[in-house]
Amino acid sequence: MESNWVSRVNTKIAAMEFTSNETAADEIADVVSDEIVKELSGVPDEDMQAVARVALKKIAEAEADPDPDMPGLISIDYCELHRMMKVAASEEAYDEICDKIDDLYEWADRQDKDLVVEQDDKGLTLLHWALLFRCPSIVVQTLINAYPDILTYVGDDDCLPLHYAARYRCSLDVVKDVYSIYPRAILELNEAGIPPHIIARCGGASKDVVDFLEEELRSTKAAMRAAEKAAAAADEDDEEEDYEEEDDVVEDKQLAIRENAETLDLLLGILCGIGMLLFAIMYAISKSP
Predict the structure, then answer these.
(1) Are the beta carbons of 109 and 67 closer than 8 angstroms?
(2) Which of 29, 98, 193, 248 could form a disulfide with 142 if both were Cys (CB 3.0 to 4.6 A apart)?
(3) Whole-number CA gyration radius for the chain
(4) In whole angstroms, what is the distance from residue 81 CA to residue 67 CA?
């Protein structure tokens, strides 16, 4: 179990911001030395080793030398995965990439939080790079499982992962992996106004990939047209129902008017009869001796 001293020192190291990368080791050494002096009872070797492991990782992060083709990386894990993808050329190498992604996911799960989708200074995620390096389906699936929202991220050129899968001639399996989770991407245009199926056709993608994207695009558009027709038909039905309701109201009013007229006619007839009876009575009285 980690001692209070180790916990305190490691917390301080983790929070450090260095004056420069070159002085990181010296600045950490100064902090650790001060904490050793404060620990009057002495620091056991195992505690020093625990602090040293954290210190070395912090120094490595500060002195990391990112790939010159992709400056501005957010984390050392992103950088390491990028390099692993770049040089991977065997099933074993791809398994190692998946293992590292799984380790990151399990770490985040233990912390009860989601992995954050990182983008470099070009706006590219690890999935963009995996597609650019033409990694196999197992790597793509592992990334998508670990980062559920990663398919919705665009680079600075407004390219979604599906644009990259089409552009860099990925296999049909990979294209299907990317498309099936976020099918809306097939309708999206990149910065140049080009959709994925055109990129695939013009970029030399395999025929089965081009055919798949074009068929899915046709199906998507057909479904959209059907949905629009259904919505329009529903609107017409609503309008007809409104008209029918208005007709019913008019008929009810007309019926009420007729009924009122008949009632009025009856009342007038009764009043006329009473008037005539009164007139007859008055006339009879006036004629009596």
Answers:
(1) no
(2) 98
(3) 40
(4) 12
For the whole model, what pTM was predicted? 0.59
Outline where the chain has alpha helix (H).
4-14, 24-38, 45-62, 76-87, 91-110, 126-132, 137-146, 161-167, 172-181, 196-202, 207-287
Asked, for residue 24, whether it belongs to a domain, the answer is yes
Indicate whether 121 pLDDT > 90. Answer: no
Residue 55 in domain: yes
Distance CA 141, CA 265 (A): 85
Range of the domain at 13: 1-63
pLDDT tens by residue, 278-288: 555 665 666 66
Total domains in the fold of the chain: 1
Residue 101 domain flag:
no
Rounded Cα distance between 167 and 268, Å, is 90
DSSP letter for each residue of 199-224:
HHHHTT--HHHHHHHHHHHHHHHHHH
